[in-house]
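Appendix B. Chain record.
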Amino acid sequence: MRASRGGRPPGRGPRRSLAVLGLALALLTGACAGGSAKGPGGAEATPESASARAAAAGKQLAANTLVPLEGKAPAPELPVTVDSSDGRKVTVTDASRILPLNGGVAEIVFTLGLGDRVVGRDITATFEEAKKLPQVTKAHDVSAENVLSLRPTVVLADTDTGPKEAVDQIRDAGVPVVVLDPATKLADVTTRTTRIAEALGVPAAGKALNARMSSELAAARAGVPAGSKPKVAFLYMRGSAAVYLIGGKGSGADSLLEAAGAVDAGTDAGLDRPFTPITTEALAAAQPDVILMMTKGLESVGGLDGLLKVPGIAQTPAGMNRRVVDLEDGVLLSFGPRTPLVIDILVDRIHQG
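Structure tokens predicted for this chain:
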């Protein structure tokens, strides 16, 4: 089972060249290599600077808005023919009416500077810029009729977008449908951004956005305190549906926690599936110092006090010390332009004593 991934950092400066991308990636590698952590400009990272970044990130996420690339919006150069993850080759000739069927994909489109071309949204596109757009999904199912009524010139979907019949109906109506692999780890962000930018005829903007995100991630990771390696368990809960799961290898949260300088407690305890039902035995093996949750998931079990009543939680170090970090559902596992903000917050909050 995979946790529902919804949609999902302020940039600095104009679009950057490939040389800057190389520099940003070098910074990211250096931040992971150990030694004294350096912030932007080579300054020593401090708890104060990490807290300042986290505070700014929190304000940006609370505003629930995106920060497009600076400068003039890119002009798509079309036609282009791209590989689709459903095994097809898709030719896009017109990007004047774009319809992303995934919140994270929509965030990338808007951040690339193409938001004024987006004509609709799916239920997971919850950021402010998308809220006034017509919704084309019922629950999490795509309505082909709603999609076609918006006359899109290109549709961007995931391999798990469905039902299949609806996607086939859209394609059969002559609309190019580019299918993308879901993003399930931090390394997928650049690949996904590149593919979307290429499909829309703005590859240079894709490179610029990847450079910006790489630089922001490097700065966030530089704030990890030396020698700190807390064990963090990601719990996916929906109390009203009696869903109580602990994340393991491949949950998505494991990748975020690694980037934030933590150990994924589920993976460390030998959980080799993305999600496993929570048991007292699993929690005893995981022994997390901190618990990470989606905000609505925490609310669904009655907040922190309700969470501590779930068998086994109160007996973990996290439960005994009431160490719980929650982030908004649509952002935490979005793996998109706002992911560096997530890392900023995690670095600050999970390493607190």
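Further analysis of this model is presented in Appendix C.
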